[in-house]
Amino acid sequence: MSSSTALLTDQYELTMLASALRDGTAHRQCAFEVFTRRLPHGRRYGVTGGTGRVLEAIENFRFGEDELAQLADNRVVDERTLEWLRDYRFSGQVDGYPEGELFFPGSPLLTVRGSFAEAVVLETVVLSILNHDSAIAGAAARMVSAANGRRIIEMGSRRTHEESAVSAARVAYLAGFTATSNLEAGRRYGIPTAGTAAHAFTLLHDSERKAFESQVAALGTGTTLLVDTYDITKGIELAVEVAGPELGAVRIDSGDVGVLARQAREQLDRLGATSTRIVVSGDLDEYAIAALRAEPVDGYGVGTSLVTGSGAPTAEMVYKLVEVEDRPVAKRSSHKESRGGRKAAVRRHKETGTAVEEVVFHPDSPPELGPHDRHLQVPLIRDGQRVDGLPTLEDDRQRLRHALVTLPWEGLKLSQGEQAIPTTFRQP
Amino acid sequence: MSSSTALLTDQYELTMLASALRDGTAHRQCAFEVFTRRLPHGRRYGVTGGTGRVLEAIENFRFGEDELAQLADNRVVDERTLEWLRDYRFSGQVDGYPEGELFFPGSPLLTVRGSFAEAVVLETVVLSILNHDSAIAGAAARMVSAANGRRIIEMGSRRTHEESAVSAARVAYLAGFTATSNLEAGRRYGIPTAGTAAHAFTLLHDSERKAFESQVAALGTGTTLLVDTYDITKGIELAVEVAGPELGAVRIDSGDVGVLARQAREQLDRLGATSTRIVVSGDLDEYAIAALRAEPVDGYGVGTSLVTGSGAPTAEMVYKLVEVEDRPVAKRSSHKESRGGRKAAVRRHKETGTAVEEVVFHPDSPPELGPHDRHLQVPLIRDGQRVDGLPTLEDDRQRLRHALVTLPWEGLKLSQGEQAIPTTFRQP
Fold first, then answer.
1. Would you call A333 an interface residue with chain B, using a CB distance cutoff of 8 Å?
2. DSSP labels for A82-100?
3. Residues in A 372-411 with any Cβ partner in B closer than 8 A
4. A11-136+312-425: CATH, from 3.90.199.10, 3.20.140.10, 3.10.20.30, 3.20.20.120
5. What is the ipTM, given to two decimal places?
6. Interface check B157 vs A, CB under 8 A
């Protein structure tokens, strides 16, 4: 696999480029803006995910011999355009919401400025990353809220594309998940990884006892034993018999996990395994997690619903041309609201720190800032170079944690509702 | 990015391996089976997607220094396991449904045989690929049916993870899509690519006329002009004025595309552009495509709904241990149906060629085959080597086309219903 991101691109970006190079408009200075017209049905906030990966993708957006040959052999573009692409390197400016920042409909998540030529070709890969990663981040944040401080492990790799899985694990961690099962996410992003055994391990052995003995011998008494292969009550009894009351945790992956967790807790306590934790998994989403709040559950394993965005697998962001040579432009379409002109945003807060409004405005006429208000876009790329000292994934994880605390309390409700704070557009 | 697929894996596959190497069960001969318990809500058939990519992923499942260092540094497994992984190379057998074959709940889509050690570690990446690719293939096939022979172009890259986009384009083509906008899919899989211009191109120019003139100069009169940036009627008039009646196509991306297509056809015919095609796009799914059957639409561009599986972004397949040393094994869980034992499948057909039943059985006791029945699993890997002469993507595309024709007519309905043919499990 090539490390170039250049062909992760819709063909029309390059045919537009070819026409624009021919007619001389390719070098007009433009601003493109990434935003979404709506949140997924009933969601109250969005979470910016993928900004860090976008910056990497822009750096790796280079046309080598392989990429150029593909375009030449299929006559996608003409010779002049191939020559232009050969030297391509983004040299413009990018500003945007850092990862972990909340967003709302109309929030200017990313602004890309440069010549039409250098900015238009980035559209597809920028949107792919932000649409996927923000969809997962938004779902993940709701799950973390629902878990209410309990440990929550991402284990959805098998239910999504193998590369989406790695990116999903990354933004799940951003959103506050404790760990991931995905080893590549551990390598690529330094995220903690976790995992012990599946039902296959028990089935492989001549008895559940032999399986537990083997696992404890290999991984220690602090391990998590999966107790629902045959009979949960017998499984728990056996688990404590084999590992002793020092057993780290038991995992229950099927059945009515709320009832089963209560029974398991009583049984574990009776057996003296009072510090043994109970982990539940199996088709959990944010609603199931919340429903287990009153139960003695110590941790959750979440798979399918996380990696599919819990009903909203894409954030539906768009990348729109909003300025040409400082002149605002917008499509005049029948049903889609479009606002021309470059934008920035401020979030206003009450004195208590509670957010009240997302104000979107032209950068040349910023609103007055109250003591608790703050600018949301930060410089990400200047003259083609990534800005120094950009936040780490850990920084962004803290950012989201703090941002969620600023939402009005209704904003954190899982039920369907309006966006937590309104977006106000100021005329320039 | 490493080309190794080894870490696209849940940690527990490797901790199970470590325990099993320690206790001596790692070398027991096992069979794992991939199947799904249900189709997405109301769907009548599934389409096998991703088998070809699975074979590649198995070949590239190797632990190099980078992968081993990650596991060692994080103490995921012990030294003995690291040594074993260093020499890992799958040496077993894989049989399965070829791509483009239909499947139903319980169909044994893939059977992996080998030692526990060598087969268990493949679980995550095999499921990631089949779950994603089959989800997209299933949605794509319904869209192609709905398009009823008209051209249909995949253009969803921006709405999904950048690597999922490439795989989605691949299986959309498998399912009968005409082309994709994704250039990397063109390079990697030789799929036809397409695309001309977006609204940004019109907005960049001083007038719509200048934009159209530029595009026609660069791409010829056979190009597709996007006519809905400002006013569709004026856009079409201008398009024919600029390109002449030889104009290849106009594209309409917003509004009530059915009504607009009718108006556009009348207008184009009036202008003498009788062979100019009409392409529509913008939030189309299989239902919207079907609803446009009576309208003068020549082609569809489909994005979001395709890459998100049109409401079913994962196929929910599982990879279950079904045999250990020729002994059937199964979890005895409270609510999930599990059938131990290795399986194969035959599809029975009437004399007319219409499919009537999916028969699932143990390979050692196959049912008698009628003249129109056929075995569904084919050998894919023998002793670790990919079988010679496996079908190409074009072959698989034809396979699906033929398979869909064999479905009872209700099976192709888009409305919610039962699976098109029943699955029958024969006791061994």
1. yes
2. HHHHHT----SEEEEPPTT
3. none
4. 3.20.140.10
5. 0.97
6. yes
